[in-house]
Amino acid sequence: MANALIVIDMQNDFCPGGSLAVPHGDQIIDPINRLMEDFDAVILTQDWHPADHASFVDNHDGAEPFSVTQMAYGPQVLWPRHCVIGTPGAAFHRDLTVKRADMVLRKGFRAGIDSYSAFYENDHATPTGLAGYLRERGITQLSLVGLAHDFCVAWSAIDAARLGFATQVIEDACRAIDMDGSLAAARKAMRDAGVTLA
Description:
Strand content: 15-25%
Structural class: alpha/beta
Largest sheet: 6 strands, parallel
Strand order of the largest sheet: 5-2-1-6-7-8
Helix content: 10-25%
């Protein structure tokens, strides 16, 4: 059975020095590069936001960073501005082996809705097209790595499992924000959805 490595959001803004840096996010780049050689396909996801994106705290007067607001699709964390289309922060980290990628999937480009998962926008209804791509290539087994473990990696893994893919998260090749217990909650949610934590 064909397998794919899904590399989530290894971008400058999520690495040390970036506007929404995940602690030690750059430490997983070498392990990810090594893993790429073991898979039939490699998919890179890229957060790709317009400047007026609804998830940016500075687009909400008086809001505090990392506070939660209600959107039409549910609760939304208000993040520091990050991964704005075409900016250096949105680019992949220079040490990531991007030439190995079969596909780059950009997500979060709709101004009114965030997109943590590689498979759906945060409304859990609008697909990105990734599932169809994987199925047409005959890929049934997925391994996920990248940033951040407790948000985009976890949401992607849960959706993958619910869509019927055999899904694992390689935890040594992930790093988390871990905000208010978010990592423990994400790990439980992944296990409950049938994701293997490797």
